[in-house]
Each structure stands twice: as C-alpha cells, then as structure tokens.
Design goal:
Strand 5 and strand 6 form a beta hairpin. By secondary structure, the protein is mostly beta strands. The strands form four sheets. A seven-stranded antiparallel beta sheet has the order 1-2-16-5-6-14-15. It contains three helices and 16 strands. About 30% of the residues are buried.
C-alpha cells in the first residue's frame, strides 16, 4: 500500500484538490425533478457558484466568511432544513420580507406580482399522470420577469400567509408552483444551509424521452 501511494501521490493530491474545489468553490448539480420547470428541465446539469454567498469549511456547513448577499430571484442550491436533501429553488423573499400567496398570486411587502399568460401546455406529474391544462405564465415581481408554471387541475398549496421571513433565513419557491416541495412544506432556509447560486446550464439531455443531448440548452445562463 505504501508503495502504491508513493507511486500515485500526484493523482491522490489531484483528487484531494478536486474534492476541495467541488465542496468549496464550484460544483455542478443535476436536475432530477420538474419543480423548476419551465426554466430548469429534468436532465439539465447546472453550474453552481459556491462562493456566491459564503466561504465554508469544505464538507461542512460551517461558514468562515460571508462573501455576498443572496438576492430575490436567485436560483439557489441548498440543503433542506427538513432532511438535508440538496434542493434547487428560486429565492423569493429575504429576511424581514412579509410574504403571502393569494390563489397563486405572490405578494411581497404588500406589492402583488403581475402575471401574463403565455399559453397552455401539457405537464407530467410523477411517472404516469399528464395534465393538459397546465398554464405557463410570466411573473413580474420586484422589476424582474420569469416564466412559471401552474396546474389548476391538481391539489396544491395555492394560498398562504402573510408570513414574515425570520432574520438570517430565506423563502424558496419552485418555478413549477403546484409541483414543488419548497418553503411551503420544508420551512424557511437558514443562510448556513445555502450551498451556492446556480449560474447556468452546463449540459442537458432529454432523460424523460430519448436521452438525446439538448444542445440549445448547453451553457444557457439562468435568469
């Protein structure tokens, strides 16, 4: 064993440094579910900037320094406060914000988001059920626009609050509003649980269809 280590120490050092890089600087995150549709699709692999918010001790949630402030609209990877699962959602509200949702319409600090219809689409939930009455909308909130999905035909948490986001915590929602296990179910997310900001799609493949690459999504920036 000692001779093997000696003969391969360069490779071992590379593995250690690569591991540190992935856990402290940058990482990639496969998208396994449809909770961020239509902006992120199953089979996308996104680049995550782990230095966007915090510098952490590698392999821990111990924050050494705060490097940047999370902003409303960021697409964020984080550890679920419920069970530690890595999730990716949209940061909707900051500490101190008062948030409510009235029949799918988001209200932040008394300002209701505006919605414009894009069109009706088919959306699959689970492995077998397809809803043909899903609606793609453009949501405008805080001066920013983004596409979202709603599915009137399924049971979902369409209204809540008003609630005030506690100090040092954040509210996360999926862009696929009626098919996302987000802060409506797992609660607010503490800053130390933030992993990083998703910057762009690196590569993508149609994992729910023919597994062919989706070249148009390669290196696509996230809004």
């Amino acid at each position: 064993m000692k001779s093997w280590i000696s003969a391969n120490k360069g490779f071992l050092v590379f593995l250690v440094l690569f591991g540190v890089f992935r856990t402290a600087v940058a990482d990639w995150n496969p998208i396994p579910s449809g909770s961020m549709r239509p902006n992120l699709l199953e089979g996308d692999v996104v680049l995550v900037n782990r230095l966007a918010y915090n510098l952490k001790v590698p392999l821990t949630d111990v924050v050494v320094a705060q490097l940047g402030e999370p902003a409303r609209g960021d697409v964020v990877t984080f550890s679920s406060p419920k069970d530690g699962t890595r999730l990716i959602k949209r940061l909707i509200a900051l500490p101190g914000d008062v948030v409510e949702m009235r029949n799918e319409r988001l209200v932040i600090n008394g300002q209701e988001a505006a919605y414009d219809m894009v069109g009706q689409v088919s959306e699959q939930v689970g492995s077998t059920t397809t809803y043909t009455d899903a609606l793609q909308l453009t949501e405008t909130s805080g001066g920013k626009q983004r596409p979202i999905l709603v599915m009137p035909g399924i049971k979902a948490a369409r209204s809540f609050g008003p609630v005030t986001v506690p100090a040092g915590q954040f509210m996360m929602l999926g862009d696929n509003r009626d098919n996302s296990a987000d802060s409506r179910f797992i609660g607010f997310v503490k800053r130390e649980l933030l992993i990083g900001r998703a910057e762009r799609v690196l590569v993508s493949a149609d994992i729910k269809g023919n597994w062919m690459p989706r070249g148009s999504r390669f290196l696509m920036a996230l809004d």
